[in-house]
């Protein structure tokens, strides 16, 4: 016999999207239950990206979630593009007035989990949602399993924040969503190494042997990526081979010493562009990776998830406080404007930096890189997109106190 519960917003998935949404709704006095398939330990240890736009940090600071981030982060004001054996610095902050924050996504997830538990509102781990029902009605349900029992959670809205492989998007009736997709003929082998970063800033390298990226997490932790085949076998990459290949692709004529150290995490990630339109169906609203995926090259995935839930929280807030569904009805269109801008930038950066097997295209790539590093106009356009366009600022939590469901 399944247990029946009730809340206002059922949030499926405790990644950055689901946890931040739960917090923004909490600040508006709106109830929610967050259901997460994995254990707390799993989601707090899952190594992902770690570049936060200024808009993302400003929102996290505004809602009281940035204390540790602001203490432990690295602030970047530029990055390097390395090609033809030469590095070219792009002065991001000089060109845009905005800065970047380096802070591991799993560190942010730890902060969001701690904040959620501090509110006392429900966050269930090892509680996979197994079915969504009644999305077309006014009382949708999420069926989930917890402690080996099935539960039904009734709500006003379902927020599908369960990532690309979640159940939310596939729960939309056939034909109600259109997926736009682009696959890339390469993947990234990513490593986390206990080695001091070999450069103050990120290095994106276009090399004949393939793309490489030097990033970091802290003064003791370096994060590095190598372009590999989509079906690359990790077993074919012992640590020494990884360091050799990184040294080759990150080499420059003026000399560059890559500090190495024990590799504590490694994995191969596919590169994909995907957008679902619209971002939801009926009382189900999709946010983050459940709705769209960007190739990691532009470091946009996390920031786009944050942008979505900022819009969604305000729209749900308006429904409860003003009885208006206008912002909810506009949710998809509002987010898709930013989603496609970011998709274009991520596809463009990916296409420019991963050396093409076709000689003509390779020369176009190098011409694009030279233009980007010699023209202030081109560099400014790149920088503006890379640091992130300001978040659209729907009404903030403080401005719309919750007044109960509309009649
Ligand atoms: N029931 C409950 N939870 C689920 C289910 C399910 N059926 N399916 C998936 N989940 C959980 C996953 O375990 C994961 O913790 O949903 C969460 C989705 O989190 P993310 O994949 O981190 O997605 P999102 O919150 O949208 O964040 C996007 O994450 O993957 C990075 O690059 C991406 O930076 C981007 C960010
Ligand atoms: C990372 O630090 O993991 C990172 C940085 C920049 C990217 C992608 C990933 O473009």
What are the SSEs and their pairings?
Elements (H helix, E strand, L loop, with lengths): L2 E4 L2 E4 L3 H12 L4 E4 L4 H6 L5 E2 L1 H9 L4 H6 L1 E3 L2 E5 L2 E5 L1 H5 L3 E3 L2 H15 L3 E2 L4 E5 L7 E6 L2 E6 L2 E4 L17 E16 L8 E5 L5 E7 L2 E8 L10 H11 L13 E15 L2 E2 L2 E3 L5 E2 L7 H22 L3 H4 L1 H23 L5 H14 L3 H12 L20
Parallel strand pairs: 1-12, 2-3, 2-13, 3-9, 6-15, 13-20
Antiparallel strand pairs: 4-8, 5-8, 6-7, 10-11, 11-12, 14-17, 14-18, 15-16, 16-17, 18-21, 19-20
The structure holds adenosine-5-diphosphoribose and P-hydroxybenzoic acid.
P-hydroxybenzoic acid binds next to strand 16.
List its traits.
single chain; alpha/beta; binds adenosine-5-diphosphoribose; eight-stranded mixed beta sheet; 407 residues; binds P-hydroxybenzoic acid; six-stranded mixed beta sheet; disordered C terminus
What does this structure look like?
The protein is α/β, with parallel strands linked by helices. The protein has helices at 16-27, 40-45, 54-62, 67-72, 92-96, 105-119, 239-249, 301-322, 326-329, 331-353, 359-372, 376-387, and strands spanning 3-6, 9-12, 32-35, 51-52, 74-76, 79-83, 86-90, 100-102, 123-124, 129-133, 141-146, 149-154, 157-160, 178-193, 202-206, 212-218, 221-228, 263-277, 280-281, 284-286, 292-293. The strands form 4 sheets. It has an 8-stranded mixed sheet. Helix 1 runs parallel beside helix 6, helix 1 runs parallel beside helix 8 (301-322) and helix 8 (301-322) runs antiparallel to helix 10 (331-353). The longest helix is centred in the C-terminal third of the chain and has 23 residues, at 331-353. The protein is globular, with a radius of gyration of 22 Å. The structure holds adenosine-5-diphosphoribose and P-hydroxybenzoic acid (PHB). Adenosine-5-diphosphoribose (APR) binds next to helix 1 and helix 8.
């Amino acid at each position: 016999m399944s247990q029946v519960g009730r809340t206002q917003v059922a949030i499926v998935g405790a990644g950055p999207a689901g946890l931040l949404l739960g917090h923004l709704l909490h600040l508006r006095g709106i109830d929610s239950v967050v259901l997460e398939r994995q254990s707390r330990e799993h989601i707090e240890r899952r190594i992902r990206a770690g570049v936060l736009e200024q808009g993302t940090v400003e929102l996290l600071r505004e809602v009281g979630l940035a204390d540790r981030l602001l203490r432990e982060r690295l602030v970047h004001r530029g990055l390097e593009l390395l090609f033809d054996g030469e590095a070219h610095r792009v002065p991001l902050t000089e060109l845009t007035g905005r800065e970047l924050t380096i802070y591991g996504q799993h560190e942010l997830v730890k902060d969001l989990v701690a904040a959620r538990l501090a509110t006392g509102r429900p966050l269930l781990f090892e509680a996979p949602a197994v079915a969504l029902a009644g999305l077309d009605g006014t009382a949708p349900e999420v069926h989930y399993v917890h402690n080996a029992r099935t539960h039904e959670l009734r709500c006003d809205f379902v927020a599908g924040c369960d990532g690309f492989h979640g159940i939310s998007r596939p729960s939309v009736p056939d034909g109600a969503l259109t997926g736009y997709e682009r696959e890339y003929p390469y993947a990234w082998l990513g490593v986390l190494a206990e080695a001091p970063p070999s450069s103050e800033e990120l290095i994106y390298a276009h090399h004949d042997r393939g793309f490489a990226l030097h990033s970091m997490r802290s003064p003791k932790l370096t994060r590095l990526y190598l372009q590999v085949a989509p079906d690359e076998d990790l077993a074919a990459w012992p640590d020494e081979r990884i360091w050799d290949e990184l040294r080759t692709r990150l080499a420059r004529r003026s000399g560059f010493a890559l500090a190495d150290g024990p590799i504590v995490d490694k994995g191969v990630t596919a590169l994909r562009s995907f957008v679902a339109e619209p971002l939801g169906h009926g009382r189900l609203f999709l946010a983050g990776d459940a709705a769209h995926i960007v190739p990691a090259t532009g470091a946009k995935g996390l920031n786009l998830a944050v942008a979505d839930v900022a819009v969604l929280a305000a729209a749900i807030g308006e429904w409860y406080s003003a009885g208006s569904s206008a912002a909810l009805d506009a949710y998809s269109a509002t987010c898709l404007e930013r989603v496609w801008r970011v998709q274009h930038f991520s596809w463009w950066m990916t296409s420019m930096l991963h050396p093409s097997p076709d000689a003509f295209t390779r020369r176009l790539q190098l011409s694009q890189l030279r233009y980007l590093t010699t023209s202030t106009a081109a560099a400014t356009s790149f920088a503006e997109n890379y640091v992130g366009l300001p978040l659209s600022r729907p009404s903030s939590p403080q401005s719309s106190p919750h007044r109960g469901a509309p009649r």
